[in-house]
From TrEMBL:
Protein name: RidA family protein
Residues in Endoribonuclease L-PSP/chorismate mutase-like domain copies: 6-146
CDD domains referenced in this protein's UniProt entry, alphabetically: YjgF_YER057c_UK114_like_1
Domain of life per record: Bacteria
Annotated coiled-coil segments of the chain: none
Pfam families in UniProt: YjgF_endoribonc
Organism whose genome encodes this protein: Fulvimarina uroteuthidis
Listed SUPFAM superfamilies: YjgF-like
Length: 155
């Protein structure tokens, strides 16, 4: 399985970044029994916040989906750190909670979330099918357009 995930990442042209350290008094992930819960991941790329603003305002739907994909890449980096680099220990992705900074009239949060969901299914295969919530919020830390947390089951 680990080989398949690494191969799919390579085929997609994705190099996982180092798992980001927490920015305050929390941890980046928690292992509890057979579960891994990640903290919310922002759309970081090359060490910088890549997509800021609100959907339905200054951020286009395409940029929102790109932000969600970047969050998903960072989620995989956290999951890899949680299993000491051994993707074979990941049983499956159970749930994503997607927070979308959006104007009150914006109602396509679920479409933004597809940027993460589609990518994670592409990379994880059958183990990537998950439940999901997509929630519009008035703002996110550092003016990020999207923040996503994930729940994984260990193998």
């Amino acid at each position: 399985m680990a080989h398949k995930i690494e191969t799919r990442l390579e085929e997609a042209g994705i190099t996982l970044p180092a798992a980001a350290a927490p920015a305050a008094n929390y941890v980046s992930y928690v292992r509890y029994g057979s579960l891994i819960q990640t903290s919310g991941q922002l759309p970081m790329e090359n060490g910088a916040l890549a997509v800021t603003g609100k959907l339905g305002g200054s951020v286009s739907l395409d940029d929102g989906q790109r932000a969600a994909k970047l969050c998903a890449i960072n989620i995989l980096a956290q999951a890899k750190a949680a299993v000491n680099g051994d993707f074979d220990k990941i049983g499956r992705l159970l749930k994503l909670t997607v927070f979308v900074a959006s104007e009150p009239s914006f109602v396509e949060q679920h479409t933004v979330a597809n940027g993460a969901s589609d990518f994670l299914v592409e990379i994880l295969g059958e183990l990537g099918h998950h439940s999901r919530s997509a929630v519009g919020v008035p703002s996110l830390p550092l003016d990020a357009a999207v923040e996503i947390e994930a729940l994984f089951e260990l193998a």
